[in-house]
Amino acid sequence: MREWLARLRDWLRRDRLDRELTEELRFHRQQLERDARAEGDGADEAPYAARRRLGNTTRYQEDARDRWSWPWLDHLQKDLRYALRGLRRSPGFTATVVLTLGLGIGANAAMFGVIDRLMFRPFPYLRDPTRVHRVYLQTTYRGRTFTSGSGYEYATSLDLKKFSSGFDRYAFMANPVLAVGTGDDSQEQRIGTVSASFFDFFSVRPILGRFFTPGEDITPQGAPVVVLTYAFWMTQYGGRDVLGHTLQIGNILCTIIGVAPKGFVGVPDKTSPPVAFIPITTYAGYMGGLDDRKTYFSQYHWGWMSLMVHRKPGVSEAAASADLTRAYRQSFNVVRSLDPEVPSVTDANPTAIAGALKSSAGPDAGLEATTLLWVTGVAVVVLLIACANVTNLMFARVLRRRREFAVRLALGVSRGRLIAQTLTESLLLAGLGLVAGIVVAEWGGAALRRLFVSEGTLEVLTDWRTIGVAAAAAVVAGILSGSGPALLAIKGDLAGSLKAGAREGTHQPIRARGILLVTQGALSVLLLVGAGLFVKSLHNVRALRLGYDAAPVLMVSRNLRGMDLPDSVRIDLGRRLLAAAEAIPGVTHATQVSSVPFWSTSGRDLHVAGIDSVDRLGRFTVAAASPDYFRTMDTRILRGRPFTARDRDGTPRVAVVSQAMAEVLWPGQEALGQCFRIGADTMPCTTVIGIAENAVQRSLLGDERPYRYYLPIDQFEPARGNYLLLRMLGDSPQALEPIRKALQSVMPGQSYVTVRPLEEVVDQQRRSWQVGATMFVAFGVLALLVAAVGLYGMITYNVAQRMHELGVRIALGAQARDLVRLVVGQGLRFAMSGVAIGLAAALILAGWVQPLLFHQSARDPVTYGVVGAMLLAVAVVASAMPALRATRADPNSALRSD
Fold first, then answer.
1. Among 250-254, 335-339, 686-690, 775-779, the range of highest mean pLDDT
2. Highest-confidence range of 69-73, 296-300, 406-410, by mean pLDDT?
3. Residue 139 pLDDT > 70, yes or no?
4. Which of 856, 852, 842, 845 is nearest to 529 (CA)?
5. Nearest to 638 by CA among 620, 619, 621, 658
6. Do the Cβ atoms of 283 and 174 come closer than 8 Å?
7. Mean per-residue pLDDT for 775-804?
8. 3-state class of 196 per DSSP?
9. What's phi and psi for 561, nearest 5 deg?
């Protein structure tokens, strides 16, 4: 190591050492000249005698330089200077290559930043991340396997901890949204509700105060204490000392006991990081339902949290999952002993998995995560297209310089040095492309952050992981795009290249260039087909009739912040809110409802004469609503009538059922007038008075039948109407704040309302297709642009190389249209080959893409045809300008050159 450092030091000061050596040799030569004159040599003969005695000074200098420097490093320095001079003389070529590589590298850097944060990068401060897992639970119901990394019971988590043995640390966690603050300053924020053991998973200390202890995290109700995140502390309190101050979180008046360090966000879900941490038992003991607060740790009916574990040394992931599965099955048997209606272990096949801590990388990642992985592959394809384009440009550059290379080889430059110089130039261009790519990734990070990431940021300039991946991509791109041209530089007939004169520019076809051009076209077709399929999927999902029209509807949620109001007060509050909403200008219809599609659903036991178990037919969901529900949601009544204000408490019970529910419960019969009982078979009969169109409630994929029924809220649970739905006349998002202020004045105490467009709730279900369409279109257009530039560049170069031949053709009588047909035909041949290969590849990959699409065939002939025609049209446009140039070839110059 010391020798290496000494050599590096000598290399850095090699110029000074070289000057000192030159002075030393000059001094010795002067001394030898003096000695020669003293021995009788004349003034003219003495210098020659001194040089003979001194020997080969050049060799002395080279030997000395070898001892204090690395020859390869000197060569690299010279090659870089040579490459910079060459690129400075070709600014158009340099700018084109740097921009092309910058787009490819930037796209990959930006997508890696997203994937890394969502799936791979450990959470800040996490200790030993390779052995930390989230527990995922799986059960089978009616032949389908359901997986969840959250939403299971506290009691189940206790059982998993009690019955498993492969872990040395356990932590309970959840990230609910609660109101933080009081009065007009209160805002809904995400709160980390965690067990005291949670902080042991991290190498972290609070910068102020302390974390809560196990003594403050006890059942049934933990201590009302809170630890703030650094960001919340700075934005809300300006960084001042807040220990001992109080903060209202939900209905809990918490004492601030600490502030977490900068960057610590715990284990957030993919929506947003928490702003504070409270004991999980505090949340359960204060915020749970009236029946849940005292029994949540021993009962199995409130699922709301997840479990984080740390494997013991020597325990593999497979062994850990097997251990958890055994524990989960024991817990499942405990549940079944309390409720015989729970399926048996054999039927449910309960399984537990020690999976990725980040849910986006876990077994229940969902369709969006899968789409994101495909988009990342698309970014890699864009980089390959960029590399193919740059390689073609490098080929053209080498062909223009073949005479120069031949001269240098004739003068004694080794072929290895020529290859090294060409690769150095390619890597230098890739380095400049890296700089451009980082700028592109930084610029595009804001858009990607809005689409995918809310935890942290996507600031590429400060993210060394992303910069490292971008640098690796640049090196690979430089080697890929420079290797072929480097080999071409040393191939060919040396004598022929030296003798080339006026016809040096004669067309020299290179098969590799055509292959690269066809590859660009094929990959562009592949991406554009994907873009077309996702765009049509997005159109299909947006055009889908949901059974209601969500666009002009606002959803109002009321939050009592834990106030224990009697049912009579709750009923009165709901009616006053409804009356206030109906009085707001712009509200055409309003309804009070107990559940909202894609937001909250509930069900009840149903009993129908002649059916032994209704539950075995599927999941039936219920909405109790006020009479204006169907007009507010624009849900059509197909037969019968909706319920009205006359259907109130004390009148015969009635219901409106969906068409699917009517068909499954009373097949081949008229459902109107049929009777079913809700809750128990001893309850009064509920008569079907109307058949409504099917309405999507939980999933757009159609994996659940739309079995839904609607009840007059005054007849069934009038105190549970926690939501209002308002149909607006104008632009609903513009009315959010006025409506919130109008309804907030009705709310008692610290309670509040939240207003959001229902369309936003529905759009969350469309995100995977939105992501796919947006990213595939963006990358597809980028790939098409790069491919078009590549085709244009190659045709232009070929025309320039063939100007002598084209001039001869004109002299022999060729017309302008013949030359245009010749040049454009060449471009179309390349494009047609690319289209054929690209469409074939798309057909092969269709089976993998199909699960990501919505009501859209991955082998759609219209999409394939449009994409093929689009690339051919681009090829015609890209070939048109070089074709026009071909018509201006001078026959006189061509004949004189012969």
1. 686-690
2. 296-300
3. yes
4. 842
5. 658
6. yes
7. 75
8. helix
9. 55, 40
Q: Span 36-43, mean pLDDT?
A: 75
Over residues 539-545, the mean pLDDT reads 88
Q: Are 182 and 245 in contact (CB under 8 A)?
A: no
Q: What is the largest CA-CA distance in the chain?
A: 141
Query: In a 10 Å sphere around its CB, with 0-12 CB exposed, 13-18 middle and 19+ buried, how is residue 44 labelled?
Result: exposed
Beta strands in 29-131 (DSSP E): none
Whether the predicted pLDDT of 135 surpasses 50? yes
Residue 8: HSE in the Cβ half-sphere, 13 Å Cα cutoff: 5
CA 580 from centroid of its chain's CA atoms: 42
The larger pLDDT score, comparing residue 712 to residue 462, is at: 712
Q: Where are the alpha helices (DSSP H) in 292-366?
A: 317-338, 345-348
Q: For residue 365, give both structure tokens.
A: 């990642």
Cα torsion angle, 298, 300, 304, 307, sign? positive
377-401 confidence digits (pLDDT tens) = 888 888 888 888 888 778 777 777 7
Cα–Cα distance, 444 to 451 (Å, whole number): 11
Whole-number Å distance between alpha carbons of 222 and 193: 11
Residue in 174, 147, 170 with CA at minimum distance from that of residue 304: 174
Tokens encoding 78: 């010279």
Helices vs. strands in the chain: H and E counts, helices first: 27, 24
Whether the Cβ atoms of residue 498 and residue 407 lie closer than 8 Å to each other = yes
Is it the case that residue 504 has pLDDT exceeding 50?
no
Comparing CA positions, the residue from 715, 749, 516, 529 lying closest to residue 622 is 715
The mean pLDDT of the chain is: 83
H-helix or E-strand spanning residue 588: strand 587-593
CA 230 → CA 207, 208, 255, 349, 516, distances in Å?
9, 10, 16, 44, 52
What angle, 0 to 180 degrees and rounded to 10, lies between the N-to-C axes of helices 415-451 and 367-400?
150
The secondary structure of 656-708 as a DSSP string is EEEHHHHHHHSTTS--TT-EEEESSTTSPPEEEEEEEPP---S-TTS-S---E
pLDDT at 495 (0 to 100): 55
Q: Per-residue pLDDT tens for 7-29?
A: 555 545 555 656 666 777 777 77
Query: How would you class 663 by CB atoms within 10 Å of its CB: exposed for 0-12, middle for 13-18, buried for 19 or more?
Result: middle
Classify 509 as helix, strand or coil.
coil
* Cβ atoms of residues 546 and 636 within 8 Å: no
φ, ψ of residue 372 in degrees (nearest 5): -65, -40
Strand segments, DSSP code E, in 334-492 are 351-355
Q: Which residue has the tokens 């029209």?
A: 549
| Amino acid of residue 131 | R
Rounded to an integer, what distance in angstroms lies between the CA atom of residue 329 and that of residue 326?
5
* Cβ atoms within 10 Å of 825's Cβ, excluding its own: 12
Phi/psi at 745 (nearest 5 deg)?
A: -65, -20
Are the C-beta atoms of residues 170 and 148 closer than 8 Å to each other?
no
Read off the tokens for 527: 């991406």
3-class SS string, 119-186: HHCCCCCECCHHHEEEEEEEEEECCEEEEECCCEEHHHHHHHHHHCCCEEEEEEEECCEEEECCHHHC
Which residues, in sequence order, are bridge partners of residue 170?
Answer: 309
Q: Does the pLDDT at position 625 exceed 80?
A: yes
Place of tokens 């991955």: 858
The 3-class SS string of 640-658 reads ECCCCCCCCCCCCCEEEEE
Exposed, middle or buried, 146 (CB in 10 Å: 0-12/13-18/19+)? Answer: exposed
**pLDDT digits 0-9 by tens, 105-130:** 888 888 888 788 778 888 899 999 99
Q: Over range 559-581, report the average pLDDT.
A: 86
In whole angstroms, what separates CA 552 from the centre of its chain?
A: 30
